[in-house]
Amino acid sequence: MMKAWPLHAVGDIRMEIRPKPVPGPGEVLLRVRACGICGSDIPRVFSKGTYSFPTVPGHEFAGSIEAVGESVDESLIGRGAAVFPLLPCRACSACEIGQFALCENYDYIGSRRDGAFAEYIAVPVWNLLLLPDGVSYEEAAMVEPAAVAVHALRQAGVGIGDTVLIYGAGPIGLMIAQWAEAWGAGRVLLIDIEDEKLAFAQSRGFAHTCNAATDDVPAWVRGLTNGRRADVTIEGAGSSAALENAMHTTRPFGKVVLMGNPSGDMKLTKDGYWNILRKNLTVVGSWNSYYANVPVNEWRLTLDFIASGKLRLEPLITHRVPIEGIGSALQMMRDRSSFSVKVMYCAH
Ligand SMILES: [Zn+2]
Ligand SMILES: [Zn+2]
């Protein structure tokens, strides 16, 4: 038997004792060692619900392989792995070209099928990324957001010495900032509307921060860049204000990547629109990450960067809770009763 946190209805999540899953053919039984609570889990649990009920949330996870199903190599037992949470249909046109994140008929661990707010989970071998030496389970549980972060940056590319401007200083914003530095950015600028997030970013080594709620962001960016503005801007806040500012804070012929999860309609003023035209801006969207070798497996890339120490994800963890603490951690994040960046369920 095992402990798990199924969501029974919007707002109704409770820990239960249920049978350990049995790995089917092509699957392994993973003992969950770390699972991040994603920002998207808060609306999932408290307002939108999972695809159906009951479903156990939890999609940012890693664990150790405890058992294998039929036709799976037994030597995997004991290995650690991160998990790509999407199960593609393998039949649609997107799957045909390896663009699994764009699959038209996918299944998803932690929103459409049971996820990792549990002690154990059965996962197909195809979804496993075995951990290289030196990568902790906690870091491995952050490969998902870190792959989303690098995917966004790869949409624009970064030239050596470029100024990279990021709207949104949450976990993904801070990961993008680290990627940008590893990539050779000259300067990384972080914008948010919460002073606590900006102070955290500074404590993690990002000196250039600005509060968009109280400061004039375009003026601040011009001041820092000799009037030049950013070469690459990432809109990760998902707000109209950030979208608007992004068009004003990017240099002529610069690039703007849109990846923020909007909470309502995204609006742009006529002036913001003119900025796109007059400055010949390139505006691109970014969705999820690549999990195929063509053009590159961004999950594998992320793991390699963690293993080599170029990406340091552990300093982003502000809270670690045992499985019993998942319910109160979700409430804490919903109520913002305590400042948090990455909140993680850990089992050692
Ligand atoms: Zn997530
Ligand atoms: Zn598909």
From TrEMBL:
**A GO MF term:** galactitol-1-phosphate 5-dehydrogenase activity
Recite the UniProt keywords alphabetically. Answer: Metal-binding, Oxidoreductase, Zinc
Q: Which SMART domains match?
A: PKS_ER
InterPro entries the UniProt entry points to? ADH-like_C (IPR013149), ADH-like_N (IPR013154), ADH_Zn_CS (IPR002328), ER (IPR020843), Zn_alcohol_dh (IPR050129)
- Say if the entry is tagged with keyword Cytoplasm: no
Query: Does the keyword Magnesium feature in the UniProt annotation?
Result: no
Q: Which Pfam families match?
A: ADH_N, ADH_zinc_N
Q: Which cofactor does it need?
A: Zn(2+)
Q: What is its EC number?
A: 1.1.1.251
Q: Where is the Enoyl reductase (ER) domain?
A: 8-338
Q: What PANTHER family does the entry give? A: L-THREONINE 3-DEHYDROGENASE (PTHR43401:SF2)
Q: Hey, which family's this protein in?
A: Belongs to the zinc-containing alcohol dehydrogenase family.
Q: What is this protein called?
A: Galactitol 1-phosphate 5-dehydrogenase
What organism does this protein naturally occur in?
Answer: Paenibacillus allorhizosphaerae
Q: What is the lineage of its organism?
A: Bacteria, Bacillati, Bacillota, Bacilli, Bacillales
The primary gene name is gatD
